[in-house]
Amino acid sequence: MEIREIDPAEETLTHRFWEIGKAADEVGRPWSTYWPWETARAAFTHVGTAMRKTLVAAFDGDEMVGCAEISFPLLDNTHSACPEIFVDPAHQRRGIGEALLRNAEDIVRGTGRHVLISEVATPDAAEESAGVRFARKHGFKTGIVDDIKVVDLVETAPLWDDVLAAAAPHLDGYDLRSWLDHCPEDLVDGYCRLMESFNTEAPLGELDLEPERWDKDRLREREGRFRRSGRHEVCTVALDPDGSVAGFTEVMVSDHRPQLGLQGGTLVARAHRGHRLGITMKVLNHQAVRRAYPDCVHLLTGNADVNAHMNAVNDRLGYRTVERLAEMQKVLD
């Protein structure tokens, strides 16, 4: 077996890389969100300022049998890297995953970084996935566990009016605004400040993560990357009566898999909590998703199991748990 880095510009190899990742990620996971080929190709070939990716593949002769994608944050958390290891299901249990992980660790050490962070899923019906057992065997420890939940936007739409009516008396002058794909100029600074605070406000458990750095350039770069990959963002923000951004929630919908959207972050700044802004923003964003993308029927989201408030919000909106996601970490020697 040979392990070597591959050039994302070599489309035949990159497509095989994607095929292996998709096949491995979907085993036993009906709600796998492994990205469509068009999105993956755009991400693999994009050269940006916020993230760099290294693609490594394992070959048995001329056949690619496993792969590793290593993401390196460039603007923040530069002590860490995020590896994802995939082995073709037909070639598993041959030591390929372990070899790829060791290779990834050597690559990360070579950059001077010392923390690996990776996400490993377990279907809801399973006690513990093979991926979690593999990660633990090789020195990863669980930092925090997320409940992965799905909501049917058609079935739960009748709940929305009652939720909004119950929240309305608590809004106390806050204004709600939604946008598609492009953050309005007058909201950019406030939106970026909230994005920066996410890693200090959201539960992180034992994960060694520092606040991210966001500014207009990073935001516009992300929007451009989304456009090139056919990915759309639907965002709703809550505005304080003085006009400052007090909270946000976001959903991503892909042209290449329009029926399943991904609920991204939801955050209300600490000073603005207690006004039911979170649940109001989420309902309004659900409505905006259905207006803009009527083919989008389901949303998938993840919440830390210790985040009682956000779990209660999602339960009220009809989300149900379909799997668990362990965010795991390893400190390199």
Structural overview:
- The protein has 10 helices and 12 strands.
- The chain is an alpha+beta fold and 333 residues long.
- It has 2 domains: 112 residues, Aminopeptidase (3-Layer(aba) Sandwich); 175 residues, Aminopeptidase.
- The protein has a 12-stranded mixed beta sheet, with helices on both faces.
- Helix 1 packs across helix 2, helix 2 crosses helix 8 and helix 6 runs antiparallel to helix 9.
What's this entry about, in short?
The chain is an alpha+beta fold. The chain is about 35% helix and about 35% strand. It folds into two domains: about 1-115, Gcn5-related N-acetyltransferase (GNAT) (Aminopeptidase, 3-Layer(aba) Sandwich); about 150-325, Aminopeptidase (3-Layer(aba) Sandwich).
Provide the CATH superfamily of the largest domain. Gcn5-related N-acetyltransferase (GNAT)
Helix content: 25-40%
Total DSSP helices:
10
- Give the oligomeric state: single chain
Instruction: Describe the strand arrangement of the main beta sheet, using strand numbers.
Output: 1-2-3-4-5-12-6-11-10-9-8-7
What general outline do the C-alpha atoms trace?
A: globular
Features:
333 residues, alpha+beta, Aminopeptidase, 2 domains, 12-stranded mixed beta sheet, 12 strands, globular
Set out the fold topology.
Elements: E1 2-5, H1 11-25, H2 37-45, E2 51-60, E3 63-73, E4 80-87, H3 96-110, E5 115-123, H4 130-137, E6 141-152, H5 153-156, H6 160-167, E7 175-180, H7 188-201, H8 216-229, E8 231-239, E9 245-254, E10 257-268, H9 277-292, E11 298-304, H10 308-316, E12 320-331
Helix pairs in contact: 1-2, 2-8, 6-9
